[in-house]
Amino acid sequence: MANTTIKGAQSIHGQNPQFLVEYIIRSRIYESTYWKEHCFALTAESLIDKAISLKSIGGVYGNQKPTEFICLLLKLLQIQPEKEILVEYLLVDEFKYLRALAAMYIRMTFRAVDVYDLLEPLLKDYRKLRLRSMAGYSLTYMDEFVDELLTEERVCDIILPRIAKRETLEDTGDIGPRKSRLLEVMEWSQDSRKVEDRSSRSPSRNTSGSHSRGGSVVSDGNGGRMSHISSPSRTASRSISRSRSASPRFRSRSRSISLDRMDTNGE
Question: Is residue 155 classed exposed, middle or buried when 0-12, 13-18 and 19+ CB atoms within 10 A define those classes?
């Protein structure tokens, strides 16, 4: 039958996996057109194409009609894919609604330790999701949806199975302490400041060598403007060139004066 659970399926939380969805919602899913036309004979591989084409998440809308998202969720509970396949669904970053569907299924069927290990990294996913409900369409985000799966009792009109709190698992040593996202940002900012301080100090050590060709730089004593003093070799060469250029003029004048004096004495 199309509505029966696959043979050999394991019981989840002591019951049939499909029974995790309430009877009223489950019966409406069986009667929906989407279930009859698109969910018949789906497998773990063919279901990927249906999940990729999803446009929203949600439970029921309008006149208690089930969404396509909740229909595919019930189909996953019916065929019960292997754990490795669900993890692959979750790791596909390109298709956000496939990831949301896998996160919902993992929350309902996996152990508490696995739920926290697999879903907490998704709190860094800030992509937008469309939520369809009785009030119509609304906007949510992937991290908010995952946070509701970890903290709320009802998500997408489905009562979630109870799991142990994270604090309890930390006390028993089953899971490590959660590292705050804000703490990671603060540590990253401190490291970047240290790198900037090191880079700003390194050019000041080479300023003395940059003026070796033109001379030396001396401050005014008050930390104000810097004055440039030429090197002794350049000042000496300048004085010699000036003395050479001035000497011919002085000699020519002295010779003309001496001739005049000789003429006056001859007269």
Answer: buried
